[in-house]
TrEMBL record:
It comes from Ruficoccus amylovorans. Residues 2-119 form the Response regulatory domain. Keywords: DNA-binding, Phosphoprotein, Transcription, Transcription regulation, Two-component regulatory system. It comes from the Bacteria. PANTHER family: DNA-BINDING DUAL TRANSCRIPTIONAL REGULATOR OMPR, REGULATOR OF RPOS. PROSITE patterns: RESPONSE_REGULATORY (PS50110). Gene3D superfamilies: 3.40.50.2300. InterPro entries: CheY-like_superfamily, Sig_transdc_resp-reg_receiver, WalR-like. The keyword DNA-binding applies. This is Response regulator. The lineage of its organism: Bacteria, Pseudomonadati, Verrucomicrobiota, Opitutia, Puniceicoccales. CDD domains: REC_OmpR.
Length: 195
C-alpha cells in the first residue's frame, strides 16, 4: 500500500520514509502541503501522514482539500504534531477530517499501530463501497457472488458481513396463494385414492 508523507523537516521526513519502507509500504514524499496536494491530486493514495505545521499549505488545509476532492476513495489521514495542546486543537483537526494523530518525535511502534488501524478501516470502506455497488445473485440458487470471497448463501453473506442471523418462515401471502391450495389438492387426491 502506498503512503504519502507531507513533512517539511528533513530529518523527520527521512525517518518516516525509512520506517515506512521497512514496514513494506510504498512511499511518496512531499516537502510541503502544496507539493503533497499536487501529488495526491494527480495520484490519490489511501494513507497520508502529514505534519500539522508547514509553510504555505499546512496539514489541516491539506486534509480539507483531500476530503473535498470528489470521486476519491477514502483516505486515512494521520496528523503529525510536536504538541496537540488544548482540546480545541483536537476538535479543529477532527472537524477538518483528520483520522488520527502521532506526536513527535516519531515512535515506530505507535506508527505501526496507527497504520494497522488505517488498513483495517480502509478494508472496511472498500467492502462498503463494494456493497454500495451491485451484488451478483444467482437467479437459480439465490447465492451471492461477493468480490474476493466467491459464491455464498445469502444467510452466510449477511452473517459474515453484518452479524445478522436468519431464521426461515413462510410469507403468509405466499402460503395462502400457493401452499394452502397445493395442500388441499394433495389432501383431496389422497382421500380419493384411500392413501
Amino acid at each position: 500500500m502506498q503512503v504519502l508523507i507531507a513533512e517539511d523537516d528533513f530529518i523527520s521526513r527521512k525517518l518516516l520514509e525509512a520506517n515506512l519502507s521497512q514496514m513494506g509500504y510504498g512511499v511518496s514524499i512531499a516537502e510541503n502541503g502544496e507539493d503533497a496536494w499536487q501529488q495526491f491530486n494527480a495520484q490519490p493514495t489511501r494513507i497520508v501522514v502529514s505534519d500539522w505545521l508547514m509553510p504555505g499549505m499546512d496539514g489541516l488545509e491539506l486534509c480539507q482539500k483531500i476530503r473535498a476532492r470528489e470521486n476519491t476513495d477514502y483516505t486515512y489521514f494521520i496528523m503529525l504534531t510536536a504538541n496537540i495542546g488544548e482540546d480545541e486543537n483536537y476538535f479543529m483537526a477532527m472537524d477538518s477530517g483528520v483520522d488520527d494523530f502521532l506526536t513527535k518525535p516519531l515512535d515506530r511502534n505507535q506508527l505501526q499501530i496507527r497504520l494497522r488501524v488505517a488498513e483495517r478501516i480502509l478494508r472496511s470502506t472498500s467492502r462498503i463501497q463494494s456493497l454500495e455497488t451491485m451484488l451478483t445473485i444467482c437467479a437459480y440458487t439465490k447465492r451471492i457472488n461477493f468480490p474476493e470471497e466467491g459464491w455464498q448463501t445469502i444467510e452466510d453473506f449477511l452473517c459474515n458481513h453484518f452479524g445478522i442471523q436468519l431464521s426461515h418462515g413462510v410469507d403468509p401471502g405466499y402460503y395462502e396463494t400457493h401452499i394452502k391450495p397445493e395442500l388441499a389438492r394433495l389432501t383431496a387426491k389422497h382421500a380419493g385414492t384411500g392413501k
